[in-house]
Amino acid sequence: MPSPIPPIESALSELPRTTGLSAMLAGRLATSIRAGEFQPGDRLPTEKQLVERYAVSRAVVREAIARLKTDGFVETRQGAGAFVALKPGLANFRIAEPGLLDAADLAHVFELRGVVEVGMAELAAERRSAADLAALNAAFARMEQALQSDENGAAADDDFHAAVATAAHNPYLAQFAAFLAQHFSATRALTWQPAARSSGGTAAAQAEHRALLDAITQGDAQAAGVAARRHIAQAAGRYRVADRKHKG
Length: 248
Known about the structure:
With 248 residues, the chain is mainly alpha-helical.
């Protein structure tokens, strides 16, 4: 017998009809699976039940199930439906699309940035080459030019952080950073918006970049880690993301 459809605070019928509707449905179902509302081996509601519950088309449901299958949350059986995988969500790593991140998700993303980017900065200070420093300085100069000319320096900002990852000289870390960059980029973009410029946030971020660049140039791993941590904390503040205190 199919597992009951778990209660969810708002049905997808209340959400705007966008091309990301299947992603929203997949996200809701993944959340239910993570919360234990569907146990490994449980059968998900039928396609018909999901269509009726969320007032979406069969195509949206099928695409959502396909996403869940790709991400390792479910397994499909011919003629039997979709079932929760034995180890849900371990086949792939995904962060919700930027537009779908809520306040808690954003806090988690910034926390992840802190873990990853602080370590990268420390390694970059220890391992940077002349070519790495040239790339860092070039990206920084482009950001400086964007700041002075009132232009959007988000792309240069991304390139600067990518150069830090490259300077760490760990191919696996660089690949992971490249994957995360598509999500981190959305959290950096706010720095270059008009509101941030008028409030001084853009200039503050550039000063933070300067501190990070100086520490890496000087080969000071401790200072690089401190500069990276401060930059991310300040960026979270500019994004109005509350600090997540340890709970234990």
